[in-house]
Write a structure and sequence with these properties.
- This protein has 1 helix and 9 strands.
- The protein is 3% helix and 38% strand.
- A 5-stranded antiparallel sheet has the order 1-2-9-4-7, with no helix packed on it. It has a 4-stranded antiparallel sheet with strand order 3-8-5-6, with no helix packed on it.
- The radius of gyration is 20 Å and the shape is elongated.
- Strand 5 and strand 6 form a beta hairpin.
């Protein structure tokens, strides 16, 4: 068996996204090191360099913006890593333009969650970021695994909020005939 990874979009709307990631390790294939486990410009409504939906027929350039501002609003994690010294863990990070510019969001081991009304959203603090999230694992052995469920808030400067689907309704509300009451 080789290492197995999954990526599942649970929700992807104009304002937020929820993504589930899993990894299962055979102990022989090594750790995971992926700087683009979640690619920000593939989420629904991503705008291109001309502020047109990136993957639409309207987009003449289809050139992605250099940065997409996602914010982590909550995370649930179920991590079963080795208990050796030091113990294994999963690192979730904002990707920078080089490995040295990455910014760690969490080191995870065990089970838990982040996110409530008291906790702020975690903004991207990588140097020269592109908006993607990456994962590194440390100390994997045979039959170790993780499941992460991560919720994001999308910044409407980088993702459309419906203005291209129905511009009139987006800007002026639902059209209807109204009369003056006298």
């Amino acid at each position: 068996m080789a290492n197995k990874f999954t990526y599942q979009v649970l929700r992807d709307t104009t304002t937020d996204a929820v993504i589930k990631l899993t990894g299962q390790f055979d102990g022989a294939s090594g750790n995971e090191s992926n700087t683009a486990r979640i690619v920000a410009n593939t989420l629904y409504g991503a705008l291109d360099a001309n502020n047109v939906p990136l993957y639409s027929a309207l987009s003449a350039s289809n050139t992605a913006k250099p940065f997409y501002n996602l914010q982590v609003t909550s995370a649930q994690y179920f991590v079963s890593m080795s208990t050796a010294t030091p113990p294994g863990s999963v690192e979730l990070f904002w990707a920078g333009n080089t490995t040295a510019n990455n910014a760690t969001i969490f080191y995870l081991n065990g089970n838990g969650e982040y996110g409530s009304q008291q906790n702020p959203a975690i903004t991207n603090n990588a140097t020269n970021p592109n908006g993607n999230l990456g994962i590194n694992t440390y100390g994997v052995t045979a039959n170790t695994a993780y499941t992460l469920i991560i919720s994001f808030r999308k910044d409407n400067a980088y993702y459309q909020r419906g203005q291209f689907n129905d511009p009139a309704a987006f800007n002026f509300g639902v059209y209807g005939i109204t009369g003056n009451k006298q």
